[in-house]
């Protein structure tokens, strides 16, 4: 077990180094940053934001990728379809607390600082994920097993609600004005890298272990990694200072004492637009990058290992697409790129799901790469788009509330809704139609927003 943990940590460190090197190749440090911030400091900010978000979303990914095994451990008395719906229902319920977490972390981030909020969020998330590995099975403690799983999942949801928004705001405020899109793209890239490691571990474990071994102890191994990785992320973050723009705001006597109240009073239009813009990202992210291995193995007929391998290949290309999209959004603007993503999803999602039904492994991989490329147009642009929509006083709050509200309603519920839609409609195309509807709503929301990529941070 210790050997596996060290190997995974080494892989995580390699992912961070590789991504940092890739970012340098993309000339991420070119351009004038905020006054008094040198290249070395900005590099530390990128690394801290990357590894923290990577740890958070690795924890989330593992649950999604091991959903079938978790169903057998916590809901053994249910039939497979019902048990899987219960597993994804727990996944969805944990998202219901995320709007509350968005309010809390947003307030803390705008009031006491981005760094402090981010340091605590990763600590709580990692501790909760580690505890999942320690929960006895249903066969051991009965109904208390899924109850304990639910409680810990709620704690996870609360802590994760401050991560994505805080890391994005942190990067945008440290970034050179003409590289905010590229800097903010580090956040979804780190998210995808967390998913990638989760997919690799799931493929490795299901390939090497027998089903009985997976249900007994194999599924616990990835969750145990949360503790050491979380401590590393917290250590790096506590060695940083808050962004210059936030420190300057903190010096003012008229600093906002109630940023969330100010958000709803003075910036409600931007908030509504942001919730709509996030909708495609929320549904697409969890359907394409988290739920897909389950869909491929349970509905399309691929083996679990083949499903994980296909998702792993798609995630690898997706990470590269993210950085390219960050550059495109800096050059052409956030609105054009986001609207292009929505239009592509409207036109191509259902045909893509039709191709998945062939069950041909090569076709499945190519379709997943296509869907990932389409999603990257949205995911790679959204962090800078949301951060630029709100002024510094309420940036963390505006981002956290809008992002987590949309994810709570539509993101965390996406695997559950997809499972229910397939069961009730009898067609495996149901998730594609659901994703297409989300794209239409996001297209309308973004079309009414203002382009901010060329404007200074308010």
TrEMBL record:
It is found in: Cell membrane. Pfam families: MFS_1 (PF07690). Its main location: membrane. The keyword Transport applies. It comes from the Bacteria. Belongs to the major facilitator superfamily. Metabolite:H+ Symporter (MHS) family (TC 2.A.1.6) family. It comes from Paeniglutamicibacter sulfureus. It is a multi-pass membrane protein. Keywords: Cell membrane, Membrane, Symport, Transmembrane, Transmembrane helix, Transport. PANTHER family: ALPHA-KETOGLUTARATE PERMEASE. Residues 45-454 form the Major facilitator superfamily (MFS) profile domain. The chain crosses the membrane at residues 81-105, 117-135, 141-160, 181-205, 217-236, 271-293, 305-325, 337-355, 361-378, 399-426, 432-450. This is MHS family proline/betaine transporter-like MFS transporter. PROSITE patterns: MFS (PS50850), SUGAR_TRANSPORT_1 (PS00216).
């Amino acid at each position: 077990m210790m050997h596996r943990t060290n190997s995974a940590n080494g892989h995580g460190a390699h992912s961070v180094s590789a991504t940092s090197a890739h970012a340098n190749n993309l000339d991420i440090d070119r351009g004038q940053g905020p006054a008094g911030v040198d290249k070395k400091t900005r590099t530390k900010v990128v690394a801290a934001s990357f590894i923290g978000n990577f740890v958070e979303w690795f924890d989330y990914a593992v649950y999604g990728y091991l959903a079938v095994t978790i169903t057998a451990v916590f809901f053994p008395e249910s039939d497979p379809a019902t048990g899987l719906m219960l597993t994804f229902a727990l996944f969805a319920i944990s998202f219901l607390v995320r709007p509350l977490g968005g309010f809390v972390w947003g307030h803390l981030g705008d009031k006491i600082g981005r760094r402090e909020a981010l340091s605590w969020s990763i600590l709580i998330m990692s501790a909760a994920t580690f505890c999942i590995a320690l929960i006895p099975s249903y066969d051991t403690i009965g109904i208390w097993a899924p109850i304990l799983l639910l409680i810990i999942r709620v704690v996870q949801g609360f802590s994760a609600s401050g991560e994505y928004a805080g890391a994005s705001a942190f990067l945008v405020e440290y970034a050179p004005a003409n590289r905010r899109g590229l800097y903010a793209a580090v956040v979804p890239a780190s998210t995808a890298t967390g998913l990638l490691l989760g997919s690799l571990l799931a493929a490795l474990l299901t390939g090497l272990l027998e089903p009985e071994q997976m249900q007994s102890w194999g599924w616990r191994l990835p969750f145990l990694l949360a503790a050491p990785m979380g401590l590393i992320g917290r250590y790096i973050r506590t060695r940083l200072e808050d962004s210059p723009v936030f420190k300057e705001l903190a010096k003012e006597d008229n600093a906002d004492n109630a940023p969330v109240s100010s958000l709803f009073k003075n910036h409600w239009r931007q908030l509504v637009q942001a919730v709509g813009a996030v909708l495609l990202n929320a549904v697409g992210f969890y359907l394409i990058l988290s739920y897909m291995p389950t869909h491929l193995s349970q509905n399309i007929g691929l083996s679990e290992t083949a499903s994980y391998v296909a998702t792993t290949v798609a995630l690898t290309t997706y990470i590269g697409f993210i950085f390219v999209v960050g550059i495109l959004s800096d050059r052409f603007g956030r609105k054009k790129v986001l609207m292009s993503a929505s239009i592509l999803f409207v036109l191509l999602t259902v045909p893509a799901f039709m191709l998945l039904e062939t069950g041909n492994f090569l076709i499945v991989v190519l379709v997943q790469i296509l869907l990932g490329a389409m999603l990257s147009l949205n995911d790679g642009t959204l962090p800078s788009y949301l951060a630029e929509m709100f002024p510094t006083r309420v940036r963390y709050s505006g981002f956290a509330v809008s992002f987590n509200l949309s994810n709570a309603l539509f993101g965390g519920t996406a695997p559950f809704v997809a499972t229910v839609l397939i069961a009730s409609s009898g067609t495996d195309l149901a998730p594609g139609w659901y994703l297409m509807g989300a794209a239409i709503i996001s297209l309308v929301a973004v079309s009414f927003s203002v382009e901010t990529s060329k404007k200074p941070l308010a």
